[in-house]
């Protein structure tokens, strides 16, 4: 999945709240970097949200199998013994 530091940049036009834009400039914020980072975060969130939705059935089957049969190789886990 792409991240905000992939190198290639493309100019875009955005319409932003004038008050927020003025305040951001007063604070010395780098608008491009800020929007890029926030957009990348939202893209990642939506990507995984979609992935989970598309794979919901497989995840449910896997979880049911683990509940029924236990974790594979669980008998070799030394850190959970004695519980």
Instruction: State the share of residues found in helices, binned by percent.
Output: 55-70%
Separate helix tally? 3
What's the total count of β strands? 0
Q: What's the oligomerization state? A: single chain
Question: In whole angstroms, how far apart are the ends?
Answer: 40 Å
Shape, principal axes of CA atoms: elongated
Percentage beta strand:
under 5%
Radius of gyration: 22 Å
Give a short summary of the structure.
The protein is mainly α.
Q: What's the structural blueprint in terms of helices and strands?
A:
Blueprint: H1 18-26, H2 31-54, H3 56-69
Description:
This protein has a domain of 37 residues. 57% of the residues lie in helices and 0% in strands. It has three helices and no strands. The longest helix has 24 residues. The radius of gyration is 22 Å and the shape is elongated. The model has no long low-confidence stretch (mean pLDDT 90).
């Amino acid at each position: 999945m792409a991240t905000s530091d992939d190198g290639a940049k493309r100019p875009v036009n955005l319409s932003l709240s004038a008050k927020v834009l003025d305040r951001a400039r007063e604070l010395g914020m780098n608008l491009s970097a800020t929007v890029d980072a926030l957009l990348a975060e939202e893209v990642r969130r939506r990507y995984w949200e979609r992935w989970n939705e598309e794979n919901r059935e497989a995840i449910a089957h896997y979880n049911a199998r683990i509940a029924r049969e236990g974790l594979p190789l669980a008998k070799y886990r030394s850190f959970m013994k004695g519980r």
